[in-house]
Fold these 2 entries.
Entry 1:
Amino acid sequence: MTSPPPPPGPTTRASAVQESLTRPRAVDGTVLDKRVAMVDLIDADSFRDLLSSFSDLYRVGIKVFDDAGNRMVDVRVGNSALCGYLWEFGGTRQACTKLVTGLKNDAFAARDGLPQPHIVDCFTGLRYVVVPLVYEGDAMGRLILGPYLPADRPGLAEQLYSIDSRVERQRAELLLERVRRAPEDVIGKVLTQLGRVIDVVLHTSMRQLLTSQLHIMSVTTSYHELEERARQLREQNEKLQELDKMKSNFLATVSHELRTPLTSVIGYSEMLLEGIAGNLVGEQRDFVQTIKEKGASLLALITQLLDASRAESGNLSLQIVEFDPTPVLAGATTSIVPQCAKKKIELTVDLAPGLPVLKGDRDKVGNIVVNLLGNAMKFTPQGGRITLSAQRWSGPRPPRGNDCQALFGVPAEDFVRIVVQDTGIGIPADKVGRVFERFYQVDDSSTREFGGTGLGLAIVKSFVDAHRGEVFVESVVGEGSRFTVLLPV
Ligand code: ADP
């Protein structure tokens, strides 16, 4: 078999193909390092359509296989009847199978490192041109053009009839008429055109693939960065929580240790006042009285700190009993009666008769009211008014933040509603949402007029929460505040 010089084919821009075929590639490197298969690169349907139109135009069959041997395009023109006829006989079928296997798999000879197209003559005398598809040094697959009958051949090859004697000459020659007869220069032109088109398709597809892959890479990188930041934040948050816990434990321990000696100081000053160690005279009595009073307020402060740290660490223990709230509420007012008299504040107590029995911690409920009354007292100027009222109340709980339940209607419940209202200084609208936070004070300046720790309302809130209740405040600066507590019956 003599082969004419190979026609020009779509091997343009190939460089160092052998090297590219053997070069080890990063499996998870950047997209630029990765080897791309033709099936992943181009849209198979449009590629097939494109090559079909080529095939229609020049009336020559075109096949394309990717690098792994997968058939991507198979357009047949004119030869089907002849090939189908020859497939009927064992000898020609065998020869045909061998030829097709070679077309698909035979390696390309290389010249100057570039794979070269080659010509394959079929045992029938028809001819194929097999062209390597190379892009940027990467072997992408092969294109097979044919079969066609070279223009200088008179007809089918004589050897065909010796391969299988059953092949009828007349019939075979008749079927040959449907096969394209083409001079080599026409085939050369077809290949040049095809080469350009495939190059453009590969180039455009590669650009699109790179753009999208780079986009995915940048998104993935940002995602990893965000993940890393989230991890750092989580770590810092855990550290802060640990520190917060240490601080609470410290507070709880110190407060507890301070209470014991302080109780003795108060106890001994009470004994001195009662004259157990002999009668006190003049200023002695006043001084001991002051020691007792200051000791008591220090004890109240320490108790507050202890309550707050217990509530925070979830160690709040409740002594649950069933109790009538009326005497508890009335008892709480006694804590502010003397100061009311001193500041000429009018105290009104309006407790509805027959309040329902509550199940909860009697002391803590008392504490809630004492705290609210204490604040009302503290923040109401001379001549003001404080009202403590309580009644049975049925209704829905107030919605919290973006509580979705509010959209569907909150079910009504039975509560004892306790309201502490004053005509004091009020709380600015932008601060009112924070007063239940620990250590929060509207006036936190060192020159502030009112004493306190900023813990009272936080304790109130934790006690109310422990009773599954609600507490909220409405306030107008200069007019007064109204704290409402709902305790479920
Ligand atoms: P404090 O020990 O400062 O009273 P609280 O937790 O009891 O701490 O209250 C927090 C802050 O809420 C107070 O410092 C004050 O600014 C504001 N506040 C509480 N109750 C009233 C009230 N009845 N009238 C005006 N402001 C109030």
Entry 2:
Amino acid sequence: MANRMLRIDPTDHVFILTGAGVSAESGIPTFRGAGGLWRNYRIEEVASPYAWERDPGLVWEFYSMRRRVAGDAKPNPAHFVLAKLEEAIGDRLFLCTQNVDGLHERAGSRRVIHMHGELFKSRCDRCSRSPFADEKTYEPPAEIPLCECGGRIRPHICWFGEMPFEMEKIFTALEKCSMFVAIGTSGVVEPAASFVAHVRGRALTAYVGPEEPANRSAFDECYMGAAGELLPKLFVVEQRTRRAGG
Ligand code: OAD
């Protein structure tokens, strides 16, 4: 298993989907599986439009805590390998993350699709003002921050029941990819969990993580282990297309 590698040919387009497991070795707890954080909170109770209507103070308390945890964390080898891969193959890499922590960028990745939003951005829940950089924490008894229009400022996060961001770009990249690699994601949250089924049969599909994901059967290959340990040895970037029999 340790010697298996994913060879990227010059014609390959690689779609990488990352999940919470990629940041686990940076000390950011995952949502599911052993050691999940956000254990004291039921994620559905703090990450939905319903939660925002019912108790915006609790929602900001949760995201303020996550801003603090992510702000203190540092990228790990898995993030750095993916940044290096972008350097090596440029826009033939499409890096799509469900993570909101910003660690891919802090490792040097330049083109990252944040399908679930970004922790260090906020937006108005009423007007069309663009999401803006925001590192502040808003914890009770702090007031819920307000927009100039009178709307409330909320985290720029895709909550349960909301449409993930950048779906058009994502499906274009899925159509184009010849290799699909999911890393550190449990394969239960849609629509990301179904991306692999969408490309299966026309792209090589691989999973990297310590446990089999719920959608394991859709992957051709499964590399079992921690992303920070496996990724530094996983990818081989070929400079020339390998010929059959060559
Ligand atoms: P999960 O918490 O559901 O799954 C994390 C996965 O990472 C598990 O399958 C673990 O086995 C794996 N894992 C743990 N340590 C790892 C390591 N060192 N290396 C590699 N993998 C490791 O996280 P996601 O699948 O990302 O959505 O969750 C998807 C979405 O659910 C999140 O984006 C979030 C949550 O609700 C929103 O907030 C909208």
